[in-house]
């Protein structure tokens, strides 16, 4: 008979130990939740979030600047090639040669 009472006492002790562990875990969870809430509302986290937003904005600006630089290079190259294609160089050279000939004629006439 004493064997059954011993088993009942050990079972009760085991259940109490498990219950104590559950209570400790719940208390730790509640403390953790409070600490996380306080951390989210702290000025440090707010400043970090603000910095992250600024970093994202700067990254987008950098990407936009790189795209604009590429477009600018393409436009400059297009302008350089269009000058040659349009014949502007040959017109400029002919005007220069005309100016040289006119100077030479003016010198001969003087």
Order of helices and strands: HHH
Largest sheet: none
Helix content: over 70%
Kindly report how far apart the N and C termini lie: 147 Å
Question: Approximately how much beta-strand content do the residues carry?
Answer: under 5%
Q: Flag low-confidence runs.
A: none
Query: Quick one: how many beta strands?
Result: 0
Q: Over all CA atoms, what is the radius of gyration?
A: 43 Å
Count up the helices.
Answer: 3
Overall morphology: rod-shaped
Mean pLDDT: 85
Structure class? mainly alpha
Short description:
This protein is 95% helix and 0% strand.
Topology:
Layout: H1 2-40, H2 43-86, H3 88-109
What does this structure look like?
The protein is mainly alpha-helical. Helices cover about 95% and strands about 0% of the residues. It has 3 helices and no strands.
